[in-house]
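Appendix B: complex inputs.
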Amino acid sequence: MSKQNKSDGEAPDAGYRAGFAVLVGRPNTGKSTLTNALVGQKVAITSAKPQTTRHTIRGIVHREDGQLILVDTPGLHRPRTLLGKRLNELVADTLAEVDAIGFCLPANEKIGPGDKFIAAQLAAIGNKPVIAIVTKADTVDRQALTEQLLAVDALGREVLGEDGWRDIVPVSAADGFQVKTLADVLIGLMPPSPPLYPDGHLTDEPEAVMIAELIREAALEGVRDELPHSLAVVVDEIVPREGRPDDKPFLDVRVNLYVERPSQKAIIIGKGGARLREVGTNARKAIEALLGARIYLDLHVKVAKDWQRDPKQLVKLGF
Ligand SMILES: Nc1nc2c(ncn2[C@@H]2O[C@H](COP(=O)(O)OP(=O)(O)OP(=O)(O)O)[C@@H](O)[C@H]2O)c(=O)[nH]1
Ligand SMILES: [Mg+2]
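Resulting structure:
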């Protein structure tokens, strides 16, 4: 993926760097929140539920001295469903294509088997710089943070030999602590290259995907147990309403929400449709802000039985 685009004759400014860095880690370790903090705008949805991110998302950081294309990934875990397996494979493919890897470990959770499993996989890649990012630094006091940094350092030496991780950076996406330092470190690991994306481009997510994600984020709010994992959102069509002036567009956005069981359908819709209306209202505001246009959001809930385990349905839902 790292292009050194010299063929078009434009020599990069002296010292300018550009390339790809991936954020990996267990589910819920703050990868997407950190991606948004680095980009300076929301490009990835986040939630308190594990496995919020389901595909790789590119967020682009523009600076005077370089451009960093951040690839946010689904949390890595021991897969229990075909969906989980697909997501792990997706991350493995991504690792092969980037210039640097940021391994996210939260400050407020002890290093566990899940982290060790990922560390070993990263060590096996061998030829890429891996930095350890200790996320959510705001959640612990100085001493606990120091202890976690030492534990993370020890893990690096255990899997990579005595040099350990290329760097270890504590950050907080919540209060901005060290976010710029992290960008400095990552840009320093990028190859000399002209910019890979036009100025101002913050993500290369297609609009329909962003819309589906904003709806999934709104729908995840307040649901419990297995439902978050059972929910998939697909934008069916986005149609400009006729007769509207170009400078005041109005779009009809039709969307299907898929769940795995009829009981889940009832939860998503809520009593008399109240819950679905609330999801629609919240998502609509976020989508209108994204598109800069008014929309009518038409949400339909459908049952796709056990889609997480069904190869055919997974393909249909975009996995
Ligand atoms: N206090 C605090 N909370 C954070 C920080 N970063 C993330 N969180 C919270 O941690 C939870 C998980 O954040 P996400 O960014 O969705 O985590 P993720 O690693 O992308 O999760 P998956 O996509 O499921 O793998 C959310 O509730 C966030 O608000 C931080 O710097 N400080
Ligand atoms: Mg995420």
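The radius of gyration is 21 Å.
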